[in-house]
Amino acid sequence: MTSSETQIFKTTTWSPGPGCHGGCGVLAHVKNGKLVKIEGDPDHPMNQGRLCARALAMTQYIDHPDRLRSPMRRTGNRGEGKWEPITWDAAFDLIEEKMNKIREEYGPESMVFNVGTGRDIYAWICMLAYAYGSPNVMFGLTGQACYGPRLAAAITVQGDFAVFDAAQWFEDRYDHPGYKVPETMIIWGYNIHATCPDNLFGHWIIDLMKKGTKIICIDPRLSWFGSRSKYHLRLRPGTDSALVMGFLHVVINQGLYDEAFVKKWSNAVHLIRKDTGKLVRESDLFSGGSEKNFAVWDTKDNKPVIWDTTLVGFKDTPDADPAVSGEWEIKTADGGIVACHTVWDAFCARANEYPLDKVENITGVPAKDIHDAAVLYAKSKPGAIHWGVAVDMTPALTPLVTGISALWAITGNLDVPGGNVFARFAFDVVPYALPGTKGAIRLKTEEQDKPRIGANRYMPLNKFYWRCQTDMTLDQIFTEDPYPIKGMWIQTAGIMQGLGMDPKKWRAALEKLDFIVAVDLFHTPTTQYADVVLPAGSFLEKDSFRSWWVPLQTINKVVEVEGCRPDVAINFELARRFDPEFKFDTIHELYDDILKPAGMTFKELQAKGWAYPPEGSASCPYLRHEKGLLRQDGRPGFRTQTGLFELYATLREEWDLEPMPHHEEPPFTPVSRPDLAKEYPLILSTGRRSPAFFHTEHRQIPWLREIDPDPVVEIHPTTAAKNNISHGEWMWIENWMGRARYKAKVTPVVPEWMIMAPHGWWFPEKKAAEPDLYGMWDANINQLIPMGHQGKDGQGAPIKHSMCRIYKCEGGRS
């Protein structure tokens, strides 16, 4: 692509490049094969011409002098920073040889495929792992505590994931006649108004605010959204689940719930045995006259009511009013009588365990503010909720997520315009599949999935979540039980400098492995522990597509950087080598196969630019639960095993987990560990996002580093004064695991009892070799956060609510 004239190409952002979850339309200005300018596409319905700093800096990114432009082979010890360039053919041959040896000697499951976030990599890393025969695709964050757990938890009770509605499902956006602007939006643990995390744009919320949407902000920091909110609820980190129970308490006790939805579309009318506290099952019941109908007695009216089928509820007949409250009896199979009450009664009783004075005591949020915010949201028709990654970063995230999901459901704000609506892949184009399911990218047999680490212990991974469990995987590298892990493929993952908690433990794990491949655009602390490093291409250097919700759109190659290859091309070549039955000859053939549900080839979609699913389809709202568009059998309802929204999670009961929302105190807080609080009196919250960086990326890009030059910790003026720390001074953050060095930003945006530190810091300008490792050991906050404290279902982790002390760098203990 060379021309003496500047050409303008339309394409779609994704990573590598901006780093985030992409979806913005851009205009790439190219002259003589070089990117000279990039700007937002004003005609694109998602970003409408707006563009973040990271995308605007692509001119510095794509031709950066430190970019890898050849495969590299390590020549010294791991961590020594000694490399030599090799050809692509030599790199592929070496990788094929080493990985085949591991497969032959130990089995394909002994190779783990470690993935990070951001790029369109999930399909292609599955393609490679499954072609190799390994089910062990791993997201390297402890407890997988980013986005995926929210999906699994929400799907458990409502069958699909749901997001706030900003009219993103329609090309005419806010002008669509069926759309309603939310009256109120709760923003829960989120503050990125200038980029796209979780495939939702912060500037959409700003659009809605301009149209009148009021904000309830839940965040211990005075965030940008908090400063513009009607109510700012500054809760103690880790107490979110208590707060949502307080919201539910208000909604239920003030009658602010949607009774019609609760009766018809939730499992509120199901019965719970009072002796066991578990849902009534078919095995409990004595037949009342047919194979599927059973006699259940309403003790209030002393008459039988017809029970339809197991886990479905009362039969909808004139003789059976599906009241949500009441006392019931059933005849058991052995002829006994068991007293029962409804799920709704049990759910209300659970909410009543959290009166507002108790919730205030747990969260630190005044009871009146909780009450007033809950009333505002519940009375808003519609109202919406947007949650950030803070929701995932606590061990008991599932009770929290199911509580928030129940809140939007019982207030009538689910699957309605301007509320929270179900998000499905456009045209049902799913680029990757769960193990054992049909699709272009899948394991060949269910048998191949059996060794997946954690899938038999943690049921969300077994049913909803195709990755192996991260903490168990790390431990298994050392124990080799039940089988050894000998190699790791690392792609889009900075496991040393950003993704891995307790990075010293990860370093020891990487040192133990026989063979490691890393794919990246730049050398990083993580690549220094690989045996081979492959140079990837940015989003401007590849053809791809994006079906993550809507619209379905293509990513179009506009430039080429010599020596670099797109992630998909790297994985495609190796998949062909490892799997003699791999059926695709070209990448576009693979794309065409995945795009079949859309009725378009890749080239046809590329000619369109983007396409929206038709209204009335499964991937376009609204009220799909009423229209039979969610369930595979075409019946109205939700894609749960009861066909209803589950206030009482039947799957969690089967997994021997608490089936209703509740609060659990995290493991390292002043409440759970008062002994530690004596020595480490401050709450350490981490992960504050920067508009200049995406996690560990972009530290070497001049424009972006100028915006955010140093690792900065936010500290309240009173707290700083108590510790003799001034604004701009360097200070240590320390706890029982280690310490990290940060520059003090003295500011009242954080409360006196908490500090807020960003993650992902390393210094590309420093030496690559240990002990420097690009300065990673100096400012890596992950050194203060443990592995192995995931929730009871294998998900979530205590990342945003640990404990610490602080002191100046000069003198004293420094």
TrEMBL record:
Which InterPro entries does this one have? Answer: Asp_de-COase-like_dom_sf, MopB_CT_Acetylene-hydratase, MoPterin_dinucl-bd_dom, Mopterin_OxRdtase, Mopterin_OxRdtase_4Fe-4S_dom, Mopterin_OxRdtase_prok_CS, Prok_Mopterin_Oxidored
Q: What EC number(s) has UniProt assigned to this enzyme?
A: 1.8.2.4
> Pfam family example for this protein?
Molydop_binding
Signal peptide range in chain numbering: none
User: PROSITE patterns per the record?
Assistant: 4FE4S_MOW_BIS_MGD (PS51669), MOLYBDOPTERIN_PROK_3 (PS00932)
Q: Which cofactor does it need?
A: Mo-bis(molybdopterin guanine dinucleotide)
Which part of the chain is the 4Fe-4S Mo/W bis-MGD-type domain?
10-66
GO MF, one annotated term: metal ion binding
Keyword field = Iron, Iron-sulfur, Metal-binding, Molybdenum, Oxidoreductase
What does the sequence similarity comment in the record state about its family? Belongs to the prokaryotic molybdopterin-containing oxidoreductase family.
Q: Please state what the protein is called.
A: Dimethylsulfide dehydrogenase subunit alpha
What organism does this protein naturally occur in? Desulfotignum phosphitoxidans DSM 13687
Record gene name:
ddhA
